[in-house]
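User: Coenzyme A biosynthesis bifunctional protein CoaBC, Streptomyces boncukensis:
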Amino acid sequence: MTQSEGKPRVVLGVSGGIAAYKACELLRRLTESGHDVRPVPTASALRFVGAPTWAALSGHPVATEVWESVEDVPHVRIGKEADLVVVAPATADLLARAAHGLAGDLLTNTLLTARCPVVFAPAMHTEMWEHPATRENVATLRRRGALVIEPATGRLTGVDTGKGRLPDPDEIYAVCRRVLARGGSTADLAGRHVVVSAGGTREPLDPVRFLGNRSSGKQGYALAATAAARGARVTLVAANSALPGPAGVDVVPVGTALELRDAVRAAAGDADAVVMAAAVADFRPAVYAAGKIKKQDGGAEPEPLALVRNPDILAELAAARPRPGQVVAGFAAETDDVLAHGRAKLASKGCDLLVVNEVGERRTFGAEENEAVVLGADGSETPVPHGPKEALADTIWDLVAKRFPE
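Assistant: Predicted structure for Coenzyme A biosynthesis bifunctional protein CoaBC:
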């Protein structure tokens, strides 16, 4: 495996599914971002995309069997030298062979010899994904430390639609980048179910107007994506966000604060952690107008708008945790005296962690970066300097993971 100087070494395994053509785009994203990528397709994969394509895109020779170039012992060397192995698509057959340690071709030999993080991106029909044998194979791989991304829901082969679609190559690339950035620490949240809320709720005034806020949902989506990249099963309750769902994340779309409350409570029943990053409206109109509210003739001022309080979802979750040891974290967006207000809010909410940040019209909302202080109920303070929202998300998960019961 010829390595370009200083480039992370990635093995791209490709198994024999129709989604193999999408792996070409993943290969392109990896090589163009400075990774040295060695494609290792199975013989079945070459029936969908030929060896010249993989060789041309990667700059590496392509082999499927251990009998090729045996003088270089590729079935051992490729896996041992890799910084990351990603298999996309990973068919039901490939997952079964990997879970049982079979070594019938170069890819399965590489998986056995790899001592780096391994990521599987499954793709198959819904019935195959839901079959007990596949579910057990996936559980086995996750228990051993592999990261198995949840497949996407959408159009499958033919006219079928359901869960089993290969996640978008850009999303798989984002997972690979996050895994490499963590220096080999991959699945520390494996076996955990986490719930994240994101976005901003909207409280309707009439059929065309609403009370809302400036939240884009980017911080909540970063929390969901980083948790999935660390092996967690993630439920993302997303309020009015146009962002694409992160790979391997179950997205539950909601609109209002009451809808978000119901969705989070439903998902939190078996969750190890709940992180409330959504900007939830404190108030909603007392009356919803069935028709569009019109301007008064003669220039008269409108009637005052009566508001009622929305429930305090974070405080409710912290007070009535359905699972012993469940960790609850929230966000506090403040415009002044940030830490003082944050400490008071932490005490009143009763949560384990509170992420406090200063917000404004041109700060945080819609931005790619954030800075905050994470306050702990134990009196701890963890400042997170200005940087990517993913970095803040990883710090939050580090602090959440420390609070899990043994």
